[in-house]
Amino acid sequence: MGRTSRVIVVGGKGTGKTSILERAIYANSLLEKPYVPTLEDTYVGIVETERGTREKLRFYDTAGLDARKRSLPPHYHTQADGYIIVYSVTDNISFQLLTDIKKDIDKNKEKKDVPIIVLGNKSDVVAQNRAVDLNTAERWAAMERLRVWEVNIRDRNLLLEPIMNLASRLNPQPSKTSFPQLTMGRKSKD
Ligand SMILES: Nc1nc2c(ncn2[C@@H]2O[C@H](COP(=O)(O)OP(=O)(O)O)[C@@H](O)[C@H]2O)c(=O)[nH]1
Ligand SMILES: [Mg+2]
């Protein structure tokens, strides 16, 4: 296990950022609980990666954004090793915020290649309440070279897969294959 990676969780108010963390990290469900807006909280979790290693992640749960407050305080970006961007599939405004959120991340990040996952939360109620279709979300994500997962907090496994994907990209293993390819691929003439 390497050092603890810092993951910023960002998105519109009420999209389920806190619920996702409570569910994914502690297996708690906030579904029936009264809504409490978050000021700021952190969660520490050990996440298994696709390589079978374990990584320690500290998640920064942020106060939600809205049409008037469209960006995070800058100190979050200087701390970030990765991001979870959350919108709600039931709330088109929360989806529209993604463009600004992504721009803000790009602008504030000197370090290239910060892994980002996009979660379209509340997929349990799409039958009655869908406001953002998956195609639209995927088209936007493809343009930004991101991947989007529709999730909900009833199904914890749905949450763990994208978080595992993020953890796997946070601490990439030094590649064992690229070095031999580099040295053996082309021979110099002399
Ligand atoms: N149906 C449904 N409701 C959810 C889901 N996730 C969160 N919620 C509800 O959405 C509201 C806002 O959740 P919260 O986690 O506080 O949102 P935050 O402001 O982004 O942290 C709460 O009433 C949650 O119970 C979900 O996956 N499905
Ligand atoms: Mg919250």
UniProtKB/TrEMBL annotation:
GO terms for biological process: negative regulation of canonical NF-kappaB signal transduction; Ral protein signal transduction. The keyword Nucleotide-binding applies. Residues 170-190 are annotated as: Disordered. Residues 170-181 have a biased composition (Polar residues). It comes from Halocaridina rubra (Hawaiian red shrimp). This is NF-kappa-B inhibitor-interacting Ras-like protein 1. It holds the Pfam family Ras. Keywords: GTP-binding, Nucleotide-binding. GO terms for molecular function: GTP binding; GTPase activating protein binding; GTPase activity. The lineage of its organism: Eukaryota, Metazoa, Ecdysozoa, Arthropoda, Crustacea. Gene3D superfamilies: P-loop containing nucleotide triphosphate hydrolases. NCBIfam families: small_GTP (TIGR00231). It comes from the Eukaryota. Belongs to the small GTPase superfamily. Ras family. KappaB-Ras subfamily.
